[in-house]
Specification:
The protein is mostly helical. It is built from eight helices and two strands, in the order H-H-E-E-H-H-H-H-H-H. It has one domain: Hypothetical protein af1432, CATH 1.10.3210.
Amino acid sequence: MNLSLNDHDRFNEIISEIASRVEVMEMKKYIQHGEMTTYDHCLLVARRSFFLARKLRLRVDERSLIRGAMLHDFYLYDWHVRDDGRKRFHGFHHAKTALFNAQKLYDLSAIEKDIIMKHMWPMNIRFPKYRESYLVTLSDKICSVMEILKMEQEKVLWKSESQNEEYD
């Protein structure tokens, strides 16, 4: 199950809108799981979400899917370090901070807002509303487990069907 070069190009076209922005790149300062930065985690979640949508042939708003996935953990702090100015239980509260930060920079679609706010379902008890939100929620869980277990992800997602090369 690999994506084509056209799929790869489409993903890069959309992700480039936000991934190179200075504020978004600030996520590289923070560790998500294991040794994975929050930026790299979000990028992998975006890729996996896009991959699943394409492979399952789901009709999705690809732009909202990718942008929402890239911004789903845009909270910009080290959740491993206790801070009295921040609520405890990061897993329950960071989505609201990520949405707040994302809305300062972008005019978000309803789908993007839903992805960011509900990606921690079922920890956060409000159900996702859109199929894009469910895809990101699932992809986030898959990527998080793989990161914690230090499993390889990149090569699986970006090998071309017609070629045996890997793409970054």
